[in-house]
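Work Package 4 report. The design task specified in the project plan requires that, given a folded chain encoded as structure tokens, an amino acid be chosen for each position. We show below one input record used in the internal validation round.
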């Protein structure tokens, strides 16, 4: 008995359907795009930011720099304030600083606690979400670094960022507390950070520009420097 063999023309769509393997490209494109964007953002974070004029940092005791509609002193509610300027979102030292500020803020509701980020709003919000939120800390975004400049916070040098002590601190913080580098979506690794305590009259009582990139402020000392502040019972 002879079996009939069916031939297919090269244009037969059924033949192409059986010979063409399923494409993985559509499922890979979003992941590939995300990796490319992350790489570009990481590279961008190593470039020097645009130059802006920097004021002298406030000394102790002196009036705190006041910027209406951004960061005005004295505060309208008359409360003393602890303000910290962060390095870029994704930096482990910035993360440790914010967690410490958030913890201190929970203990002293009579004091305003403010963190300032120079990363973009979306990047800052994404970073805060990864840290379970800022708690009672008010977070301001200063992407143009105008507030940073008024408080004397400019661009650091390579030793400030890449010194052996800073690199050792990165490893120690990661191994000891599980705080490692996160993806840097925006911001500059060269931006200096700092923290200050300002009393109800708008006078600086504590703080200064961080000497090293790995410096973590002691916010307990900031609270002690503010007069007439008692720990929540």
């Amino acid at each position: 008995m002879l079996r009939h063999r069916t031939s297919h023309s090269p244009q037969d769509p059924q033949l192409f359907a059986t010979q063409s393997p399923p494409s993985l490209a559509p499922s890979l494109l979003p992941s590939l795009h995300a990796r490319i964007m992350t790489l570009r953002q990481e590279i961008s974070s190593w470039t020097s930011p645009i130059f802006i004029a920097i004021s002298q940092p406030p000394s102790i005791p002196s009036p705190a720099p006041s910027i209406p509609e951004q960061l005005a002193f004295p505060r309208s509610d008359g409360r003393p304030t602890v303000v910290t300027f962060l390095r870029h979102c994704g930096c482990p030292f910035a993360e440790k600083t914010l967690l410490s500020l958030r913890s201190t803020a929970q203990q002293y509701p009579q004091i305003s606690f403010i963190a300032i980020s120079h990363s973009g709003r979306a990047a800052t919000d994404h970073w805060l979400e990864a840290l379970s939120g800022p708690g009672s800390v008010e977070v301001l975004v200063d992407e143009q670094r105008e507030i940073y400049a008024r408080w004397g916070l400019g661009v650091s040098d390579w030793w400030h960022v890449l010194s052996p002590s800073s690199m050792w601190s990165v490893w120690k913080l990661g191994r000891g507390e599980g705080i490692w580098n996160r993806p840097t979506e925006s911001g500059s690794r060269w931006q200096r950070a700092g923290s200050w305590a300002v009393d109800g009259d708008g006078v600086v009582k504590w703080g200064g520009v961080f000497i090293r990139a790995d410096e973590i402020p002691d916010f307990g000392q900031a609270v002690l420097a503010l007069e007439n502040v008692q720990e929540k019972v």
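The domain at 56-225 is CATH 3.40.30.10 (Glutaredoxin). Validation will be extended to a larger panel in the next phase.
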